[in-house]
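Dear colleague,

Thank you for sharing your sequence with our group. We've completed the structure prediction you requested, and as agreed, I am returning the results in plain text so they can be pasted directly into your records. Please verify that the sequence below matches your submission; if there's any discrepancy, let me know and we will rerun it promptly.
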Amino acid sequence: MAMYQLVDHKGKLVVVNDLSSCASQDEAIAALAQAEAYVRTRPPGSVLLLTDVSDLRYDVHGVEAMKNFSSAVTPHIKASCVVGISGVKSVIYRSILRVTGRKIPLFESRGGALDWLAAQ
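Please find the predicted structure tokens below.
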């Protein structure tokens, strides 16, 4: 069973990578791997991606997995955004932006994030 979801929002297909529902860092890393495998099957510049990291706890291994995921999927991304960034996660977020060179907007809610992605 996939740990990511494909959501139709306003006629646009969005990959929702919900790491907030992961019970452990190992589960979050597995979710990243599954989402990466799917995204890499899509044409370059075609994927709308929402990643929710609300309530996610991780250590250096989790941070490295997130950086690797972000770098690996970058060629396939049309637009992406994140929900759930606060506190120390802001430092990690900025490092991911540097690694990928992408602009990844932050949103407070999934609804706002999905609306923004659907407009891209």
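Summary note from our side: The two ends are 28 Å apart (CA to CA).

Kind regards,
the structure core
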